[in-house]
Structure formats: C-alpha cells, structure tokens
Specification:
The chain is about 45% helix and about 15% strand. The chain is α/β, with parallel strands linked by helices and about 375 residues long. Helix 2 (about 40-50) links the parallel strand 2 (about 30-35) and strand 3. The radius of gyration is 20 Å and the shape is globular. Bound molecules: nicotinamide-adenine-dinucleotide and magnesium ion.
Amino acid sequence: MRRVTILGATGSIGQNTLDLIARAPDDFQVVALTGGRNIAQLAADARRHRAELAVTAHPDLLEDLRGALAGSDVAVAAGADALIEAAQRPADWTMSAIVGVAGLAPGLAALEQGGTLALANKESLVTAGPLMLATAARYNARILPVDSEHSAIFQALIGEDRAAVERVIITASGGAFRDRPVADLAHVGVEEASTHPNWDMGQRITIDSASMFNKALEVIEAKEFFALDPSQIEVLVHPQSTVHALVGFNDGALMAHVGPPDMRHAIGFALNWPDRRHLPVARLDLASVGRLDFSVPDPARYPALALAWQVMAAGGHAGAIFNAAKERALDHFIAGRIGFVDMSALVAQALDHGLCDAPKSDITLESVRRCDHLTRQQMDRLIAA
Ligand code: NAD
Ligand code: MG
C-alpha cells in the first residue's frame, strides 16, 4: 500500500493521477489532496478517495470546503502554510502538479520528507533546479519526471551508461498555430490559443505550447534534471506527438520513446516505478499513424524557444526571471491586455534587463520568491508603459 499525496489534485495532471489511483484502490492510500477554487471537485475527490486531508490554496474558501466535507472524516485547511503542511504529511509518493512557481515551496517541503516526488511542475526545476536537486540529495528523496518528454528521456536511459549520451532530442507538437501564417500570429485570440491539436491539458500549458514557452521551459528542465550541457539539447517539431523524446548515444544510436499522447502514461510510469504495470492508455497502431514527421522549429514562429538557451547561458536566477516574466505575460494575454506575439517580446526584454537584484547569488526559496516578485512588478510596468 503506497501512501500518496497530490498537490494540485483538481487540475488536469491531478485528475489523471486520481483516475489511475481509482483503478487500483488496493494499492494506494490517499493522504492529502490540494486544490484551488474548485471546491466541489476537491471535496468529491477527498470523499471518494477517503483522503486524510483536503487543502484549498484560498483561505476565503475554507468554510465552503468545510461545508462540502461535513460528515466525512476528511480534515480541512486553507492557505499557503496549509499547502506546505499537506506536503509534509508522511507519504511515500507525492505528485507535484500545482501550476506555476506556486508549486515550488510545497514540492520542496515534500522532498524534505525523503519520499518520491513525481514532478509535473516543471517550473520548480526551471526556477530552482540546483535547490531542488540539492534538497532531494540531502533528504535522500527521489524526483521522478512526469513531463512526458522527460519521462521519455528517463525511460530511454534505463540501463544505459550516462557518459555515452551525446544528445537529447525533445519533440514539440507545434501547438495551436503550427500551420498559421506567421503574420497572423499578432491577431490570434485566447480561445484559439487554448486549443491543443494533440494533448488535452490545462489552459496555461496549452497556450504555452502554442508559443513554445512550454518547450523552452522543458529544455531548461531537461538540462537541470539530466545534468546536460545546453549544446546537447535539440528540439524538433513532430506534429503526430507519438515520439516524445529521443536520446542519442556516442555510437550513433537514437533511442526513441513512442506512445500515444496521454499523460496517464508518464504519470502511471512514475506511480508504479520501478515496476511497469498495465496502464489504461490506447495502444498505438503504427500502421494507422502511417508516418512520423520531424522538422526544425521556425524561429520566427516560435521566438520564445531560443530564450531557453539565453537563460541557460546566464544561469543563476535567469530561470526565475524567465518563468515569472512568462507567467505574467501569460496573465496579461489571457486578460486580453496584450497580444500573443507580445508575450515573447516582453519576456525577452525582462531577460535583457536582468530584473532581479542578485541574479548570480545562491538559489534559495526566498531568493527565487523575491526574484519572482520583482520580475512580475517589472513586467506590469513594462506592459502599462
Ligand atoms: P491545471 O491548471 O489544470 O491545474 C493546476 C492545479 O494547481 C489545480 O489543482 C489548481 O487548483 C492548482 N493551483 C493553481 N494555482 C495555484 C496556486 N497559486 N496555489 C496552489 N494551487 C494552485 O494545470 P495542469 O495542466 O494540470 O499542470 C500542472 C503542472 O503540470 C504544470 O506545471 C504544468 O506545466 C505541468 N504539466 C502538465 C501537463 C498536462 O498534460 N496538463 C503535462 C506536462 C506538465
Ligand atoms: Mg511536456
């Protein structure tokens, strides 16, 4: 019986994780579930899975949550400290699936318990990679990748000599605007940017897929997680989204991970690791897929992608600046205040300004939070100007 906690249980990754857990009720015991404003979902899942604790990030919703769980044995709590307490409850396996830099502190708290952290929250490694890895090492905890590309790389490396790795190729679907004339991108709207051709994901990551900010985050995530040199990482557009990543070795071999675009594969792999177990994902019929296409991403269509290499070269807090600037630009795009192509232009400006007081100092939770805060303020000023 594995004791599991899900941070961000009401989101897309959280719900897919609960779907897998519900299929093997004898194998898992749910410790804590956390969510945001969707109290009905959080309460229903906490009841159904007999969680010990349910936490909403919003203190103003505590009474709603208490009411929704009245008569059950589920304890309730709310707010940032309660998210940390949820992460600190003894668990064998914790899913980090809060979206954005808000996932960093609870993820670190979970690592300090020394169990396994299944990491969907890529922002943790982008903003604080060295801190995450040092915390895991210090508390003898393990981080398993959940992002599909990183799970694919991880799986391709099983049993391999890491010194023989020459390169890693991460694929990208190309997102909602893959086939749009580049000149039209200045006028695309939020709704069409929120529609993914292959994957069913949360709204923010779906828009980040259209801009390739998501791929930029994943490149940095891969560098941190697999200790790669930035020059070893490549990105290819692969519209079918069946090859999730490839690892190239020094003998010229490429090991590809191939599967349907269903996050339950990567989640289930992390959930069952080190075993492989049956998972309810579609089996690929390669003959009906027919062909697999690969192409180099057009820098004019995806200007956000190159920023990843700028961030990796700068090091220090550049990842925190990049992520905060990106999150804030995305907020403003969703609110209709800036256009789609303005996002990458503004983030590039934020990186050039180095809007953070101590970009090269040691990365701590506090320094990342401060950098995040300063960068968001600066972005708001840039956008208001
Ligand atoms: P989502 O928006 O569907 O869900 C986010 C979850 O986080 C919800 O439970 C929400 O209540 C909670 N949350 C949001 N803001 C919060 C805050 N400030 N404090 C505490 N909780 C908060 O997002 P998602 O698509 O499930 O993505 C979650 C993470 O996984 C992201 O980092 C994303 O990049 C990553 N990821 C997602 C996918 C996918 O298929 N959805 C794939 C790879 C990686
Ligand atoms: Mg991914």
